[in-house]
TrEMBL record:
This is Uncharacterized protein. Residues 35-44 have a biased composition (Basic and acidic residues). GO terms for molecular function: protein serine/threonine kinase activator activity. Gene3D superfamilies: Leucine-rich Repeat Variant. GO terms for biological process: intracellular signal transduction. Residues 34-55, 279-299, 429-489 are annotated as: Disordered. InterPro entries: ARM-like, ARM-type_fold, Mo25. The lineage of its organism: Eukaryota, Sar, Stramenopiles, Ochrophyta, Dictyochophyceae. It comes from Rhizochromulina marina. Residues 429-441 have a biased composition (Pro residues). Belongs to the Mo25 family.
């Protein structure tokens, strides 16, 4: 009978139970290093051999789950087994205490993902594929995040605030964010793929945006175990690029939710320095009491994070380039019109783009140009923006006339000419001091050209590509070029 247990093809319920026991044994004994992960150990068609160590058993059982759910090229899965196994993976067992029914046995899919860093390498890949399969099946229908949930999206939502009987956190989405900084082979990239599957669900993205301290800010700030300022500033190129891919998906897939998040969290991301127009006169004709000098910025006393600023000022080449590309995409998205207008009305932001225009890296210069042009093309420029452009008018024109002369694309040349002519046409606003000041210093980059070549595999030009490179007149009210003259008052 014992041998039959291993040889007979198990039902979905039996497979879940034996995998649960094998996982318990693996975690109890500690993380087991599988010395030689052979291809046959990840074979989902067969049960593990008798006497196999826990790591091999877990690897084979997870492969069996994947095979039963997804089949292979020559074998289609049974829809009945898919339904039964999917449901069995989601089952949460509660305690008998009716007053406070704690989770006695978490759903197996939750335990497997929470134990992802303890699983063998092949099992991590299989879990990512299983997770993706289950998430895609949960994107339709009602959304009821309860202990009786039967879709992965609902289960993930339910476990956000749930602990097991030992008091351990069971928030899988937070766990995945943390694992995105893991140096373990393949763990960060598989976790990133799983997070992007989570982001497919509008319901779950709403929950992620509601708790940015758990799910969003770790991309920018120091996280436990990281050696950098956050996931986006990771030391390894592939980890940083993958983290940017996840953040981009978060901020662009569900347009309305992303717009609401960017608007409500604008201060955290970009700061709250508002550029002021000259104060309106009082009824008696004098200046308003307590008003700042004309054109002076109004700065609140409350300190803000300015999390995105830190990315743009990073010493990490990949961080600066990727953050510029994403910023350009966000600002040129019609849905983010309010965020764009706020961002391009800030003198501090303009000066930051002028610094990046002169970065040693040509790629960063090019990305910065596609953000800088939005400041110039805005027909509602505040006086402080006009003043800064006029103050640097001669230097900007001289610099832009020779800017990336090797690029001969018609669209880029037209845009560059339009920006130069617009800057040339600007006149000083009344009451704003436009005395020449030294140009801002570019961020030192070191061997930037070598980094450009090393990063060429990123492909495209980001915000400078076909979509991002347009001065999108539909995104900026009014017109551009010769229509943009002095903006009074």
């Amino acid at each position: 009978a014992g041998m039959e247990w291993f040889r007979r093809r198990k039902s979905p319920g039996e497979l879940v139970e034996v995998l649960r026991r094998d996982l318990d044994e693996l975690l109890t004994e500690g993380v087991e290093v599988v010395a030689e992960e052979r291809t046959e150990d990840a074979n989902g068609r067969e049960s593990p051999p008798p006497g196999a160590p826990p790591g091999i058993r877990v690897m084979r059982r997870i492969a069996q789950v994947k095979f039963m759910l997804m089949g292979e090229a020559d074998t289609k899965p049974s829809e009945r087994e898919v339904e039964e196994l999917s449901a069995a993976l989601m089952v949460t067992r509660l305690s008998d205490d009716a007053a406070r029914p704690d989770v006695q046995e978490p759903a197996l899919v939750i335990r497997l993902v929470m134990s992802l860093d303890a699983l063998p390498f092949e099992s991590r890949k299989h879990m990512q594929q299983i997770f993706s399969f289950l998430m895609r099946r949960s994107l339709t229908g009602d959304f009821q995040p309860t202990a009786e949930a039967r879709t992965l999206g609902e289960v993930l939502a339910f476990y956000r605030s749930v602990q097991d009987s030992a008091g351990n956190d069971l928030d899988v989405m937070h766990k995945l964010v943390e694992l995105c900084s893991s140096p373990a082979p393949g763990l960060a990239l598989n976790s990133g793929l799983m997070l992007r599957d989570v982001i497919r669900s509008e319901h779950l993205v709403r929950l992620l945006f509601a708790s940015p301290h758990r799910y969003i800010w770790p991309f920018f700030e120091m996280v436990p175990g990281s050696q950098s300022g956050g996931l986006l500033d990771a030391l390894k190129f592939d980890l940083a690029s993958d983290a940017f891919a996840t953040l981009r998906e978060l901020l662009t897939r569900h347009k309305q939710l992303a717009k609401e998040f960017l608007e409500s969290r604008y201060r955290d991301l970009f700061g709250d320095v508002e550029e002021a127009r000259p104060a309106p006169p009082t009824a008696a004709g004098g200046a308003a009491a307590g008003a700042p000098p004309a054109g002076a910025p109004q700065v609140t006393s409350e300190e803000r994070h300015r999390l995105y600023d830190a990315l743009l000022k990073s010493a990490n080449y990949v961080t600066r380039r990727q953050s510029l590309k994403l910023l350009g995409e966000l600002l040129l998205d019609r849905n983010n019109f309010g965020v764009m207008m706020k961002y391009i009305s800030s003198k501090r932001n303009l000066k930051q783009m002028m610094i990046l225009l002169r970065d040693e890296s040509k790629s960063i210069q090019f990305e910065a140009f596609h953000v800088f042009k939005v400041f110039v093309a805005n027909p509602r420029k505040p006086d402080t923006i006009i003043g800064t452009l006029v103050r640097n008018q001669k230097l900007l024109i001289q610099y832009l006339e020779h800017f990336h002369e090797d690029k001969q694309e018609t669209q880029f040349l037209e845009e560059k000419g339009l920006i130069i002519n617009t800057i040339r046409s600007l006149q000083p606003p009344p009451g704003v001091d436009v005395a020449m000041t030294p140009p801002p210093q570019a961020v030192g980059e070191g061997a930037a050209e070598a980094q450009d070549r090393a990063a060429a595999t990123e492909g495209g030009a980001g915000a400078g590509g076909t979509e991002g490179s347009r001065v999108q007149q539909q995104s900026v009210p009014g017109g551009t070029g010769q229509q943009q003259q002095q903006q009074g008052g």
